[in-house]
Write a structure and sequence with these properties.
Radius of gyration: 18 Å
CATH class: Alpha Beta
Organism: Hyaloscypha variabilis (strain UAMH 11265 / GT02V1 / F) (Meliniomyces variabilis)
Number of domains: 1
CATH architecture: 2-Layer Sandwich
Shape: globular
Oligomer: single chain
Protein name: DUF1330 domain-containing protein
Distance between the termini: 32 Å
Largest sheet: 8 strands, antiparallel, barrel
Number of strands: 8
Strand content: 25-35%
Strand order of the largest sheet: 1-3-2-8-5-7-6-4
Length: 265
């Protein structure tokens, strides 16, 4: 099974995203990046795992990079990074086969291929917090604003997951329902899923178990899912009780053809 590196990077103060992409472009033949995505905001914050690295220093994360290799980033790229957080994950070959072509179709689909919203946002289920992957008042307000600008195009949600003992099967049931109906009918697609690989230093099991990158045609499709009774029935029964910790980070992918000085953000 191929092993991929998932990098979150915070750029050095003097480095802009276009200048970083210019440098990244010069190494693309060796790095062969699968995903380059601009970080938008946290949807769910981790509560116990990796909180010191991800949250404690109030770091502004700029980019998500997913690479098909665990080799260290080249020195010219590392010089442009102030902070970096990385996990490695084994990803099934079938998901990586022809990934760029499949991803291009997801990010730039024919309009006729985008499913309509189901109407759940007209009478949404609202929760006090989004930590259970529910629509909170704050998240709803942000989505309404974001959807009128760049949020009208596709978003990619980075998920890190840690399962409670014996509960992974419940999460797999949730994943099956996501693929069968509650996610897919809103255009949701778990396009990268992998098992996190560890170095053996965390013998107490205090580690992430799985990573997933989920595609949605727009932020409103994501919100439509969260606001719906059918999704929340499955979410509350299978997903929420199965997780010891999780985080979700909303990102917006930068097209692979846009590398270099002409990169579009």
């Amino acid at each position: 099974m191929p092993v991929c590196a998932i990098h979150l990077v915070s750029l050095a103060p003097s480095t802009t995203i276009p200048s970083f992409l210019t440098t990244l472009h010069s190494h693309k033949e060796t790095l062969k990046p699968l995903v380059i995505s601009r970080v938008i905001r946290w949807i769910i914050l981790p509560t116990s795992l990796s909180t010191a690295e991800l949250l404690a220093k109030n770091i502004h994360w700029d980019l998500l990079l997913i690479l098909p290799s665990t080799d260290p980033l080249p020195a010219p790229i590392q010089k442009l990074i102030a902070h970096q957080w990385t996990v490695h994950a084994g990803v099934p070959s079938r998901l990586l086969q022809d990934f760029h072509s499949k991803n291009k179709n997801l990010l730039h689909p024919n309009k006729s291929a985008i499913p309509p919203l189901t109407g759940s946002l007209e009478k949404p289920k609202i929760a006090s917090t989004a930590q259970g992957l529910e629509l909170s008042p704050e998240l709803r307000t942000w989505i309404q604003s974001f959807s009128t600008s760049e949020g009208s195009s596709a978003v990619s949600m980075l998920n890190l997951l840690a399962f409670k003992p014996g509960k992974k099967a419940d999460y797999l049931h949730y994943g099956a329902e996501f693929a069968r109906s509650i996610g897919s009918q809103r255009g949701g697609d778990a396009k990268i899923v992998g098992s996190v690989i560890h170095d053996g230093k965390n013998a107490d099991g205090d580690v992430w178990n799985e990573v997933a990158l989920a595609h949605y045609p727009s932020i409103l499709h994501f919100a439509d899912m969260l606001a719906s009774a059918d999704y929340q029935a499955v979410n509350q029964k299978y997903r929420v009780p199965s997780l010891r910790d999780t985080f979700i980070l909303c990102t917006s992918e930068i097209g692979l053809d846009g590398f270099g000085g002409g990169a579009k953000l």
